[in-house]
Amino acid sequence: MRYISTRGVAPTLDFRGATLAGLASDGGLYVPEQWPTLSRDEIASLAGLSYPETAVAVMRPFVGDSLTREELRALCEQAYGRFAHAAVTPLKQLDHDHWLLELFHGPTLAFKDVALQLLGLLFERFLTGDTEGPLTIVGATSGDTGSAAIDAVAGRAGIDIFMLHPAGRVSDVQRRQMTTVLAPNVHNIAIRGDFDTAQALVKAMFNDPGFSGRFRLSAVNSINWARLMAQVVYYFYSAVRLGAPERAIAFSVPTGNFGDVFAGYVAAKMGLPVAKLIVATNVNDILHRALSAGDYSSATVVPTATPSMDIQVSSNFERLLFDLGGRDGVALATQMQGFEASKAMRLTNLQHEGAASLLTSASIDADGMALAMRWAQEQANEVIDPHTAIALAAAREAAVDAPMVTLATAHPAKFPEAVERATGMSPALPGRVGDLFERQEVFDTLDATFGAVSDYIAERATPRG
């Protein structure tokens, strides 16, 4: 398996190279040179497998020669052995048609753990015996990526992590899960700006030859292909338990950066019968406008009770546009460079029509979110977080003749104020993180400028060997 850049210029890499690189050197994102497929019989055979066994079967084609099957199995068993539920990503039935796929049983109570626990182990495995020097991970988070990435690499040899979050725009639980990890290789940065600004700073550091030439940079955001690969697994795991491949399954996904949705798209490309993928956004609705009207134009970010979705530039959307546009890296590079300059872009007819065959979208406001939270509590005795509620609201609005799975992306206790406003009850943190508010916090607050952030990192990171 080889990996190519969506912008067509960066060198082709194997799985190990793409994992360690994160972002492609031409500013694009790595994708497989071709999509592997599983036959109906191969998909049916997943029904009796554990989550780690399912992960090996789904991810093995993407790994190529970078890991043996036995090495991949050992990494999966280690990664998912830390989850609080034996099923790792269990399904809960809400009513006759609707299901919740709980993705928050990992150590930081969010779906990002499913991928990042594995990614941390992949980094460690690929760096063993390496002579190119330590890895400097630079990432941006709208809430959950930061804590999951930090938990995955804290204390690991040969890795430093610098995580940017928008000051005052993540929940107290989300912030503390990052800033109370006091490992010497963990550096938390609050920037005076929004997530899109943080994400742009990260990309700028990767694309600046003077900075990226000094350090061996890598990414833990969903711009890193290995993260998306790991997320493909739970689409297969849940679908076969609801009757796939004999019947198609629909999924509703709360999204900001489009990574979780794109993982579902990959599952469909691999042969999983997906009836529909619903892209559920809050009022920061750039993805809804792009998919419904072809208008991918950035607007001002509106802070909401769903901070992980307060995004107006969705990095992973580039992967979809590349695949739907005939995989023309030169054309896509021109298209994306135009967007980066003007913050506005029209999808081509090929891109817009291709997306419509599988994807639909909805923008849910605060009232719709609250109503979904109350419905889940009153009708199904389930307390859900606000991001999950956005997706559930979209799922209940959709007219799809298939079992509907809503991805539950975070434990409700990560957003207690929003849950209490909607339902009247404040969910408690699970015992394993119950002392979170008693732990010491350490982080630095910086201006959202390239100079301030790159200088900060340069003073603390270890240069290339």
User: Roughly how many Å apart are the termini?
Assistant: 29 Å
Q: Describe the global form.
A: globular
CATH second-level architecture of the domain at 91-109 and 225-423: 3-Layer(aba) Sandwich
Reading off the top of the CATH hierarchy, the class of the domain at 91-109 and 225-423 is best stated as: Alpha Beta
CATH topology grouping of the domain at 91-109 and 225-423: Rossmann fold
| Widest β-sheet, arrangement of strands | 3-4-14-9-10-13
- The percentage of residues in β strands lies in 15-25%
From the alpha carbons, calculate the radius of gyration and give it in angstroms. 20 Å
The computed structural class is: alpha/beta
> Helical region count?
19
Low-pLDDT segments = none
Number of strands: 15
Averaging pLDDT over every residue, what do you get?
A: 95
Query: What's the story with the biggest beta sheet?
Result: 6 strands, mixed
Instruction: Give the fraction of residues assigned to helices.
Output: 40-55%
GO biological process, one term: threonine biosynthetic process
Pfam families: PALP (PF00291), THR4_C (PF24857), Thr_synth_N (PF14821)
Modified residues (N6-(pyridoxal phosphate)lysine): 112
Keywords: Amino-acid biosynthesis, Lyase, Pyridoxal phosphate, Threonine biosynthesis
